[in-house]
TrEMBL record:
Keywords: Membrane, Transmembrane, Transmembrane helix. Pfam families: EamA. Residues 164-299 form the EamA domain. This is DMT family transporter. It comes from [Roseibacterium] beibuensis. The lineage of its organism: Bacteria, Pseudomonadati, Pseudomonadota, Alphaproteobacteria, Rhodobacterales. InterPro entries: EamA_dom, EmrE-like. The chain crosses the membrane at residues 40-57, 69-92, 112-140, 160-178, 190-215, 227-249, 255-276, 285-302. It comes from the Bacteria.
Length: 303
């Protein structure tokens, strides 16, 4: 089995845990930007220590980070922040179901952006797997009903749809940017390149969003510092999940990694059924079946 497959599944599982902790932070009083920044601020030191510790222990030469590396990394890091904000903004609109669906175009857009910027190609079989998974994700998301009294044109072309498509595009830019940055490093094994790229990305995100909070949300940084009991474990899960994603991006095209990473929604579904004892609709069960079919097809085409 190719290494990127178990690494991606591990990353998706850790991301699921991180979302649970981040959701708890949001309901305890932090703003959306504050809860997002806590993820970067608490994971950045851990990632840096791990990356440079591994560099020292492995005895490898430090890879040179040239202009190409930063040209991929900075847009990827900023794109991830902006994409998250777009998703949050969706929920302020009454007619957001179409926007939520458009946000799920992330995998498809990752394939297009990867082809344009990196020349990454995807086989017909994997294209089919991505398409099946996309339908499953849309079914499993099952957003609340929109305002169906509005004309179709207004339901499709509105600010919510714009935010949804923007988030899918920005998440695609982020994934391809991280893969491009890791591949731009001129030396080092897979884990070294992935960890150093992640260290640079979290440093950029911590600094950028930290400056935003300092000027636009006075006092939020202090509230993040006071939330360390939850923020610190969240930083740990964020580091582990991100290391998985970055390692997988170094080994495989972003679109295929993101397609397999949709297994995270299956983890969330299982938690809701077996832990929270929530009842599932036929639509949700159908979505899980399609995602599992997509994952099975990816296994078959990759192993």
């Amino acid at each position: 089995m190719p290494l990127w497959i178990p690494v991606t599944i591990f990353a998706a599982f850790m991301q699921n845990l991180r979302f649970l902790l981040q959701r708890h932070l949001k309901v305890t009083g932090l703003s959306t930007a504050g809860a997002t920044w806590a993820r970067f601020a608490y994971s950045a030191p851990l990632v840096a220590a791990l990356a440079f510790g591994y560099l020292w222990l492995s005895g490898q030469a430090t890879p040179a980070a040239d202009l190409r590396f930063w040209a991929f990394l900075v847009p990827g890091a900023i794109g991830q922040i902006l994409a998250t904000m777009c998703v949050v903004a969706l929920f302020a609109f009454r007619n957001f179901p179409v926007g939520v669906t458009l946000a799920k175009t992330e995998v498809i857009l990752s394939a297009i952006i990867g082809l344009i910027l990196l020349g990454d190609t995807v086989s017909p079989g994997l294209v089919a797997a991505i398409a099946i998974g996309f339908v499953g994700v849309v079914l499993l998301s099952d957003p609340p009903k929109g305002d169906t009294s509005l004309p179709l044109r207004q339901r499709l072309f509105n600010r919510a749809s714009g935010y949804g498509l923007a988030s899918g595009l920005l998440f695609g830019v982020s994934a391809v940017g991280y893969r491009g940055a890791s591949l731009a490093l001129d030396s080092g094994d897979v884990f070294l390149r992935a960890s150093l790229t992640l260290a640079a990305a979290t440093a950029v995100q911590t600094l950028t969003l930290g400056l935003w909070l300092a000027f636009r949300e006075r006092g939020e940084i202090a509230r993040v510092a006071a939330s360390w009991r939850v923020s610190a474990p969240m930083g740990l899960t964020s580091m582990l999940g991100s290391l998985g994603w970055f390692t997988a991006f170094t080994l495989q095209t972003a679109a295929v990694v993101k397609a397999l990473g949709q297994v995270e929604l299956v983890f969330t579904f299982l938690v809701s059924v077996f832990w929270l004892k929530e009842r599932s609709s036929a639509k949700e069960i159908g979505g899980v079946v399609l995602i599992l079919a997509s994952i099975g097809l990816i296994f078959w085409r990759s192993v």
